[in-house]
């Protein structure tokens, strides 16, 4: 493996560690779409357009939920778990 490819791998892993809910959201999206496509052949009397709308809403809901949890996790890490020390602005008491 060249040094360029190793750099890309470490950059990808760093991004996954910084934002662990992005791959989770993508995996959930792919899983929901795959499941709904599999269910499509047994949809019964449901119109194709209605089935596709339900699939889109479920997949988007999962991604939005993962993004929300990711933002909350990041806020927790930044403000509660590892708060930055407030810096003095030059004012003396």
Provide a compact summary of the structure.
With 93 residues, the protein is mainly α.
Description of the molecule:
- It is a single chain.
- By secondary structure, the chain is mostly helical.
- It has 2 domains: 1-44; 45-92.
- Helices cover 74% and strands 0% of the residues.
- The longest helix has 34 residues, at 48-81.
- The chain is elongated, with a radius of gyration of 21 Å.
- It holds the Pfam family HIG_1_N.
- This is HIG1 domain-containing protein.
Brief descriptors of the model:
about 90 residues, mainly alpha, 3 helices, about 75% helix
List the helices and strands and how they pair.
Layout: H1 3-18, H2 21-39, H3 48-81
Global geometry:
elongated
The run of helices and strands is HHH
Distance between the termini: 59 Å
In the predicted model, the low-confidence regions spanning at least 5 consecutive residues are none
Strand content: under 5%
Structural class: mainly alpha
Query: How many separate structural domains?
Result: 2
Helix content: over 70%
Radius of gyration: 21 Å
Main sheet, how many strands, which sense, barrel?
none
Quickly count the helices. 3
Transmembrane segments: 21-38, 58-76
GO biological process, one term: mitochondrial respirasome assembly
Main location: mitochondrion
Subcellular location: Mitochondrion membrane
